[in-house]
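Researcher: I need the complex structure. Ligand is phosphoenolpyruvate. Inputs:
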Amino acid sequence: MASVYRFVDDCEDKSLLGNKGANLVIMTKLGLPVPPGFVVSIEAYVAYKGSRHLPTHDIDSALEWLEKETGGKLGDGLLVSVRSSAAVSMPGMMDTVLNIKDKASMMSAIKKVLDSWDNLRAVEYRRLNRIPSDMGTAAIVQAMVMGNKDKRSGTGVIFTRNPSTGEPGIFGEYMNQAQGEDLVSGTKTPGPVSDLRSAMPKVYAKLEEAAQKLETHFQDMQDVEFTVESGKLYVLQTRSGKRSGQAAVRIAVDMVNQGLITREEAVMRVKAEELKALLHKRIKSPEEHAPLAHGLNAAPGAACGKVSFKIGEVVRMAEKSERVILVRPDTSPDDIQGIAAADGVLTSRGGLTSHAAIVTRAMGKPCICGAEEIKIDLDAEQFEVAGHVVKKGMEITIDGTTGNVYLGSLPLEEADVTAEVAELLSWADGFRRLGVRANADTAEMIRLAKTFGCEGVGLCRTERQFNAPERLSAIRAFIMASTAAERMEALERLRQLQKEDFVAIFRELQGMPIIIRLLDLPLHEFLPSEADTPDPRVKERVRELREINPMIGHRGVRLGVTNPEIYQMQVEAIGEAKAEVEQEMPVNVSVMVPQVITVQELLWVKKHVKGSGLRFGVMMETVRACMRAGKLIHVADFFSFGTNDLTQAVYSFSREDAEKKFLGTYLRLGILQDNPFEVIDVKGVGRLMETAVFWARRNRRDLEIGVCGEHGGEARSVAYFHTIGVNYVSCSAFRIPVARLVAAQAAIEEKMEKTPAAISSP
Ligand code: PEP
Ligand code: MG
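Model: Output:
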């Protein structure tokens, strides 16, 4: 037969039979009880489209065979159904014709199904899912079995494993005396498939056997439709089953242990999104609740608690074990205690690299940023949104994974870092080439990052260590000092405090590498706002330090050059801490200089930070540094890309303002496809990075290059960083598992395609 294939014919080609058709052939071959039938192929569809003629001769002889096979005649002991079967799944988009009793209706039904490839629904579905419109569909003609024939009949759908937990064993629904349509339409409520076990144990055993066979063949969890007719089981359809993140991991690991798939396959099967969802608390059935407002999904996970607008109050409430959500227009280093005490943070301003976003992500706390619709009145201690007034003390729920805010306290589900997750990630570690380090600023954060499997710290932001009140007052004393003696005294205090921090950090690391970044914050950020201070001296200093564009102002190495004593103090503190801890264990510490644009800056810093013997690296976060990479390697021991500032620079978008002002509109209008502060912009920022990597490695093949911007923990970005040949990514603790998984997937993909990693070129 040229363009019509019987299920018993030796053809499993999806491009001819479509998905469903090919699976029916496979199931028939496996010896499963499939009602017999045949496929009018995609080849026939193509001919029909041009000529409007069907291969009637082939269809007639297939029908003749079908009648012989079933012992009936069409309309007399044999009814057939006609369904579509495309090579890509388009669920429910095309037509189905049931209960066909005569040849004429069967001709016309086949045409109807083939023509439905072009119905509006299908066309729209293809457009949305970018499915080519010229692929076409096959039509399946199959003997019907009747789940409503008698008391020993019924129909059901099972998964071969539990799709929400991954537990082995069939799981699903069964309805006695019903047809598939009754199940799908929801007109009757089915019972659990165990009903079938009690009613017809033999049939149930056959179903279990079929499930096993299908899994072994497809090497994946299956979603199977079946019908029982007068006590006889028929399998109607199978496909890979949809599953939760938890199930995806458990199934992948179990299947390796059962010898069904390899470790590489298991690593490839779990999606970054699935793993991410697993590592945080989540709202139970979020679809049952209407959100009150929406903002940027800045740090994943869900939290509920009473609304509070005041830092002191948040701290007091947390001390009484009350759950609390801190709501502020934005946050600053001053708010750190409140953020630490809160269960989650909601801001009406600021983007994905704002203070609130970075700090909460590092703490593993849910956060929604830039929820512009929320109008916060700090004096009245309330916010207004969509006609609701939410006063302090009222309960809300925030979902930092989606950016949705809800009124009231919704039920939450715990995160699951199961033994299976740990096992899967340990396999991933065996495949990846990219190192995965943590962005962590304190010993506690490092402890947490270690539980997620970090291999060191790629970025320790020292300005974060000044956040605690004692430290904040020390740095303020330095900024406000009016005499050299006062200045020296304040610096000495800071040196001691920093040393204590570094000692604790080195001990926690136990010899793992750490890159400490010298101070990178405009000084005015350490002072209260002008309005918040009654002290006229402080007011004046705030005014003096104020800048129009602080993000591109007096920060980073620029501050190091004008105030070398700060960097000097930091390097001394690091050196002393290193000497102390080295009495007990090895210390592997390097120092990194932020915001560099030229070799001269590095030489200046090196001169003023003499004799430390520490490795010196450059943060590659200005456009000029990337363009001068070939020169910077002569002074630097390593590079680390700061993709947050680099994105800001390449786009000329302020990372503090862009998301709250116009990025949302850009994304909605499709002017930009992705938020560049979230997903690395391969074509712009990436090009610049590739240029820098090329010029650096041209002269120093073995130069260590990392990425420590927020992109280092985002799945698509990590896959890209693998291809440009950097040595490691560094990200906040809770994003480490995703980075480990994706780095492995990128390496496996590269091996499968057998192409070498994209060699970067300018
Ligand atoms: C960066 O700019 O990418 C970076 C990691 O530094 P920060 O976010 O502290 O500016
Ligand atoms: Mg930076």
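Model: Summary of the prediction. The longest helix spans residues 484-509.
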